[in-house]
Amino acid sequence: MGVAGRMDLEILLLNLAPQAPSADNIEAVVADGRDMSRFDDGEFDVVFSNSAIEHVRELDAQRRMAAEIQRVGARFFVQTPNRYFPLEPHFLVPGFQFLPLRAQTELVRRLPLGHHRAVPDPAAARQVVADIRLLTLREMRRLFPGARIYRERVLGLTKSFVAYGGWSR
Questions:
Q1: Most buried residue, 32, 33, 52, 169, by CB count within 10 Å?
Q2: Do 75 and 46 touch, CB atoms closer than 8 A?
Q3: Quick one: three-class SS letters along 17-85?
């Protein structure tokens, strides 16, 4: 995005696992987006989250993450794939998200799908599948009340949603 190395900008990366910063203006911390109590209200000018909120598994956890994003950021930009887009974006299988958990797990056990290698262990394969909960437009509106929702489209279909707030309209 052209911001790495710009000393007029301070960037904080928040991840569950350690990550080495790629520039002097970037600080990386290990933390959980569902609990950012170490940060003050409005501490950040902008909170940017790209394809992360669908990885916190349960709707209640997604609610906590959305609330924390809105609490710590004066402005926010949160992107997530649309549950109803025909091609599931993590496994790259049409309709994968609508299959029963058992069928998803079996496919992940037996085949390399999308960005994932085959995971032969049944418990590990189930965890890979269970770690993703795609959101609907209705859920995004509820998670980010008052935010504007942009629909990213591909061939006329909504591929993903971007909730953004804090900017003047």
A1: 33
A2: yes
A3: CCCCCCCCCEEEEECECCECCCCCCCCEEEEEEECCHHHCCCHHHHHHHHHHHHHHEEEEEEEEEECCC
Closest CA to 149 of 159, 137, 157: 137
CATH of domain 31-84+133-169: 3.40.50.150
| C-alpha to C-alpha distance for 167 and 161, rounded to whole angstroms | 17
- Residue 78: phi, psi to the nearest 5? -125, 120
Q: Are 49 and 33 in contact (CB under 8 A)?
A: yes
Closest by CA position to 88, among listed 33, 137, 143, 129 = 129
**Contact between residue 80 and residue 140 where contact means Cβ atoms under 8 Å apart:** yes
Whether the predicted model's global pTM rises above the 0.85 cut: yes
- Going by C-alpha positions, the residue among 121, 120, 100, 124 that lies closest to residue 110 is 120
As given in the structure block, the two tokens for residue 50 are: 């790209």
Cα 127 from Cα 157, distance rounded (Å) = 29
Q: Distance of CA 88 to CAs 6, 32, 71, 95, 159, Å? A: 36, 25, 30, 6, 10
Considering the chain, tell me which residue range(s) the CATH 3.40.50.150 domain(s) occupy. 31-84+133-169
73 beta partners: 44
